[in-house]
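Each record in this resource describes a single protein on a pair of labelled lines. An example record follows, reproduced without changes.
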Amino acid sequence: MALGRRLLAITLAIMSGGTAWAGPFPTGPLGGVKTWAVYYGAAPETAAELARFDLVVLDPTRHPPLNNVKRHGALLLMYVSLGEVNIHSPAYPSIATEPWVLAPNPNWPEARRLDPRAPGYERWLLEQVVPAALAGPVNGLFLDTADTPMELERAEPARFGGATEALERVLGALHRAHPRALLVLNGGLPLVERSRPMLAGVAVESILTDYDFKAQRYRARAPEAARERAAALRRVTALGLPVLALEYAPPDDAGWTQSLIIKTREAGLIPYISTIGLDKVFTQTLR
């Protein structure tokens, strides 16, 4: 099929720079993780499937019963957004009128971008959001959307200069406040390089795949773009961190999904394949 041929072309283009994207064999608290899942729904019946994974990422405000998810020893990380806040989040009303709450994310209209340089941002995150996420039998945090303020800084350095340094400071403060919490940064690869001692792992999305929000279509990423993402990833994986890879594919395309799993594992990454909403549990990577 066309998608399969394009995926092969992407893989060959990436692999031309080396046989694997990952670096040294990962060690540390996530060194034994072979499977993982991300699920932002709350259906109680999903707990049995989630319990089969080594590591599970959930939404702290709505999720299946946590003790059921952890009954076989799964590590549990709760989602925390560093660079955006959803207007339906319980943490949003208290900051809705703050000047550091910025315009919506065009791809996610219900998400408001945040300016991490503001003192009020750090207080809100560390005193309200993080403690709520770590309540209960939780092992750590899955830190998302660091790329949002970093991209604002790249696009408008005069207006948003210092955003990356601010995120680094916030990560340091978070780590000092909760030294036993496992921190996994999703994206934000330049920040990973600067914050390596604080992190247990890194997650990356859509190296091989892409999602067209306007057309609402899954597609293979262009080979050159995939190669650029893989090159950035190599710099990070050289640090020896486990890499959790999240790719998106249509739920009814088993062939494409299996190809993604194989190619990601060959690269030394830990795959999970889902739909863009992350509201269902897919178990193909358990096979």
